[in-house]
Amino acid sequence: MGGLSFSTTAVPRPTTTISWFTLASEGDRSLCISLAAPRNSRKNQRRPQVRSAASMASNAFARFARSAAPILRGPARPPTLRQCTGFERTFRYMANQAVDNFSFGVDDLLDSIFIATTNTAGVRLCNAARIKRVSVWGPALAAQPDQSGEIAICWNDQTSSTADDMGAPGIPITDVPMAVTDIPHIHTRPPPGSVAAMWQSSPTSTVNLFGITCPAATVVDLTIEYIVLTGPGGGISTGFVPIVRTLAGATIGQLYNSIIGNFVPFDTAAI
Predict the structure, then answer these.
(1) 186-195, 233-242, 254-263: which has the minimum mean pLDDT?
(2) Strand order of the sheet with strand 113-116?
(3) Beta partners for 79?
(4) Distance CA 184, CA 138 (A)
(5) Contact 84/218 with Cβ under 8 angstroms?
(6) What pLDDT does 224 receive?
(7) Which residues are CB-neighbours of 30 under 8 A, at least 6 positions away?
């Protein structure tokens, strides 16, 4: 090959200084390398990164996979499951007249759903139940001009079923309409640890769980959790407990919701 000659061309700042070389044998003049960069431009020292479309798509998919498929870690051991059969239901009632501190007791709780065995008697479907929550909506003052419009739930705050439990005056929850068209409303749960929040199963208990005060046409939603009456083998037990109240005109074998005091259920199968 022939000799190799170099030539350098200086370009005024801030343009980059470049070098040229010539291959004497081929006479090819080509751009070789950049020798210097402007001193006052740090931005220009960073070359833009050229990324292929395939690389960008791969990174995007990896980010999506990390966010869309988290690692699920369950309990170290299988959790304990309830072995008995149960269900939860919300009953809706309406007061057919004004009520002053009506006592909702254990017998009302357990008799709330039953099967008629004769035209006048029935048996409880469940052998245990507990109150989950109560919601009350009173009518507006315009619909009851001769009443105060107050609605109230007073929970039994006893911590046992004994009548002489000390330090349990009860917990009242109240609301009143603030205008002629205002509708009072309360939503409440039994106090934790109180007898009102406990499972009830005694067929002879006379404990009151809460008292309610309201005008006529008040709507009450009562949510109850039940345990179905089952025997040792899991089948329907033969030891059904009769309901307390006496029926009138019931159909044998029909499942009914019970009328509680002056509160009538919003249900065609109510008696």
Answers:
(1) 233-242
(2) 122-124, 113-116, 255-257
(3) none
(4) 5
(5) no
(6) 95
(7) 20, 21
| Rounded-to-integer distance, Cα 57 and Cα 212, Å | 65
For tokens 């220009």, name the residue.
Answer: 44
- Strand order across the 4-9 sheet: 4-9, 18-23, 28-34
Residue 51: strand pairing partners: none
Structure tokens that stand for 56 in this block: 């960008």
> What are the structure tokens assigned to 135, written together?
């919601």
Q: Which tokens sit at 104?
A: 């909702």
Q: What does the alpha-carbon distance between residue 241 and residue 203 come to, in Å, rounded to a whole number? A: 7
* Domain locations along the chain: 1-39, 86-265
Cis bond upstream, residue 14 (ω within 30) = yes
CA distance 38 to 29: 25
Prediction pTM value: 0.65
Question: What is the average pLDDT across 112-117?
Answer: 91
How distant is the alpha carbon of residue 215 from its chain centre? 31
Rounded Cα gap, residues 162 and 36, in angstroms: 95
Structure tokens at 190: 């039994």
Query: Which of 222, 223, 91, 100 shows the shortest CA–CA distance to 150?
Result: 100
* CATH class, range 86-265: mainly beta
Q: What type of residue is 173?
A: I
**237/145 Cα distance (integer angstroms):** 51
Q: DSSP secondary-structure letter at 141? A: G
pLDDT tens digits, residue range 15-36?
A: 444 444 444 444 444 444 444 4
Q: What count of Cα atoms within 13 Å lies in the side-chain half-sphere of residue 18? A: 9
